[in-house]
Design a protein that fits this description.
By secondary structure, the chain is α+β, with helices and mostly antiparallel strands. It has 16 helices and twelve strands. The strands form four sheets. The protein has a five-stranded mixed β-sheet, with helices on one face. The protein has a three-stranded antiparallel β-sheet with strand order 4-12-11. Strands 5-6 form a two-stranded antiparallel ribbon. A hairpin with a 2-residue loop joins strand 5 and strand 6. The chain is globular, with a radius of gyration of 21 Å. The structure holds protoporphyrin IX containing FE.
Length: about 425
Amino acid sequence: MSDQATLEKIFPQSLDAIRTEFAGAPDHVPKDRIVDLNIAMGSSHANDLVDPYEPFGWLSGPEIPRLLFNPPPQNGMGSAAGASPSGNWVVPHYEDIDRVYSDNDHFSNKGTAEFQALIGETFRSIPLAIDPPEHSKYRMFLVPFFSPARITRDLEPRIRKIVTEMIDAIADKGEVDMAWDFGRVFPVRIFMGLMGFPDEKFEDFLEWEWDILHSGSLEKMQGALRNVLEYLRSFIAEKEKNPDEHLTSSIVHGKIEGRPLTEEEKIGTVWFLWLGGLDTVAATISQMYRRMALQPEIQTMIRENPALINGAVEEFLRTQPILSSGRRATRDFEWHGVQVKAGDGFSCLNPAGNFDASRFKDPRTFDPTRKANRHFTFVGGVHICLGAHLARRELRLLLDEWFKRIPEFRVKPGTSSTVYPGLLSIRNLHLQWDVK
Ligand code: HEM
C-alpha cells in the first residue's frame, strides 16, 4: 500500500491544489472553475487503496462549486471516448448529476461512445447515442430481451452452468488471476450465448475489445474497430439468411414501428451491445473481488448470510462507479450562476455523486442492507443501462456459486493490487486460498 503522503500528492484533496490554467477553454468558462480532474476520470491515475474511489469523495462536499471545468486529458484519448477537445464541465453533486441524466431537453447523448467515428463510420450507437423522443422506439424494441423474466427463463441456467464450470476449474488450484482469467472471460462467454456468436470468435472478441478500450493506441483502436465491424456485418448477413433463436437474429428480423430495421440500425444496435456489455462487467468483477480480498469481513458477511448477496452486489456497484458518463448541452442556459453554451461537454462525476453524503448515509461504508440504493453506476433517466438486470444477475450468480466452493481468499503475496478507479480497472489480480 502507498503511504498517505504519496497518495495526497497524487490525489490532492482541495480545489486550490488542482486549479490549473487552460488556454483552450471557451471564453464563457470562469477561470476559477478550471481544475485538473483527470485524476478522477479513471484512465490515468492508479492507486492501491482498499476503497480506490476514496480520493474523489471530497468533490461532492457542500463547499465545492456545483460546476467545475476540466481540460481534456493530456494523452488525447479522451476525445475518442466523447470528451470535448476544449474541455468539459464536470458535475460532482448527486442532485445535479441526477438532473443531467434526466433532463433530455438540455443535455444530449449525440456522439456518446461513438468510437466507430475513428474509422469514418457514420452509423449511430443504438440506443445510447439517440436522444428522446427517437430513443424510445429503440429502447422499447430491445427492453423485452433484457427483462428480468426473460433473463430468468432464457439466460440464468446458462450463466449458472458457465460460472459453476469456471469456478470448479480453479477451486483445487488454490489460485486464479481473477481479472485476466475470470472477469475478462466470463461476461464474454455469456454475451456470446445471448447474441448467438460462435464459440470460435471468443479469442478475437477479447483481443478487439482490449484494443478498443485499453490499448491507448489510436492505430490499434482503428485496426480492432475495422475487424469487429467487418465481423459483425458478416454475422448480420449470415443471420439474414439463417435465422435462429438468439438476439442478433431477433434484431436482424425485428420490426420497429412496424418496419424492418435499416442496415445502419442493425449494425448500430449489434455494435453497441457488443461494446456495452463486456468490459463493464469485467471491470466490476475485478474490483469486487479486489475489495473482498482486501476487506475479508465482506467475505465473511456474505458467506454467513447469502441472503445479503443482492444487497452486496448493489453496494459493490455503488462503490465502484466505473464510468463517468458524458452529455452535451443542447442550448444556451444559465445553471448555478454560470453560463452554459450549446455544444458544451459535460462529465458527470459518478465517483463523487455515488458517495454524496447529502444522499447516502455513511457513504464510504460498504453496507449490503442499504435501502433505496439509487446510485449512478448504471446512470439514470432514459439511458439507464439496458443490461443492468443481466449484469446484476451475472454478479449475483457468480457470488452465489463462488461462496459455495471457495474458502476465504486473499491477494497473493508479492503480487500487485493496483487499480485504475474506472473502466480501465485492473489488468491482473492474483488471488489465493488454502486448498484442503
Ligand atoms: C456492471 C456492468 C455494467 C455497467 C457498469 C454498465 C454501465 C452502463 C452505463 C453507465 C450506461 C449509460 C451510459 C450513458 O448514458 O452515458 C449504460 C448503458 C447501456 N448499457 Fe450498460 N453497463 C453494464 C452492463 C451491461 C450489459 C451486460 C449490457 C448488455 C449486454 C449493457 C448494455 C447497455 C446498453 C444497450 C446501454 C444503452 C442504454 C440506452 O441508451 O438506452 N450494459 N451501461
